[in-house]
């Protein structure tokens, strides 16, 4: 049985794009089998996408200390339609900011907790330009979430 990992991302900058690509490379590592990786822009992801997923990775820039409006829109659109049926989904998070990212992390974790999702890995947070270590952490995040879905 194939499992599905949904990556919901908002990648308006080169830095968030690099982080997304690293997460995607980790999630699609050839050693991970039986996991279909689906990627959706935050403004395009739907409740049906969440309900079809067995796990999620969420990616956002931190804008003025909060998650992007696009990721917030995603949560606003899916919250009640998935609330009862997506309990227990494992999720991971990556956040990029030029200043503080703590508010964005706290906001996403608060909503995910409200949905009954369980954090499967520590958030990857990057301030400034992602370096090699940050991109490796993003790769690890994607691989961890995908490998956790393998049977």
TrEMBL record:
<feature type="domain" description="NADPH-dependent FMN reductase-like">
    <location>
        <begin position="40"/>
        <end position="115"/>
    </location>
</feature>
<dbReference type="InterPro" id="IPR005025">
    <property type="entry name" value="FMN_Rdtase-like_dom"/>
</dbReference>
<dbReference type="InterPro" id="IPR029039">
    <property type="entry name" value="Flavoprotein-like_sf"/>
</dbReference>
<dbReference type="Pfam" id="PF03358">
    <property type="entry name" value="FMN_red"/>
</dbReference>
<protein>
    <submittedName>
        <fullName>NAD(P)H-dependent oxidoreductase</fullName>
    </submittedName>
</protein>
């Amino acid at each position: 049985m194939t499992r599905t990992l949904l990556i919901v991302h908002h990648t308006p900058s080169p830095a968030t794009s690099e982080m997304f690509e690293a997460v995607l490379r980790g999630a699609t590592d050839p050693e991970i089998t039986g996991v279909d990786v689906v990627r959706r822009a935050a403004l395009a992801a739907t409740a049906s996408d969440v309900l079809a997923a067995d796990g999620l990775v969420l990616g956002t820039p931190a804008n003025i200390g909060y998650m992007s409006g696009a990721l917030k829109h995603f949560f606003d659109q899916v919250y009640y339609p998935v609330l009862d049926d997506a309990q227990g989904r494992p999720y991971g998070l990556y956040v990029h900011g030029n200043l503080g990212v703590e508010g964005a992390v706290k906001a996403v974790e608060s909503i995910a907790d409200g949905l009954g999702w369980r954090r499967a890995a520590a958030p990857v947070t990057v301030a400034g330009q992602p370096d090699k270590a940050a991109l490796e952490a993003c790769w690890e995040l994607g691989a961890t979430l995908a490998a956790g879905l393998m049977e």
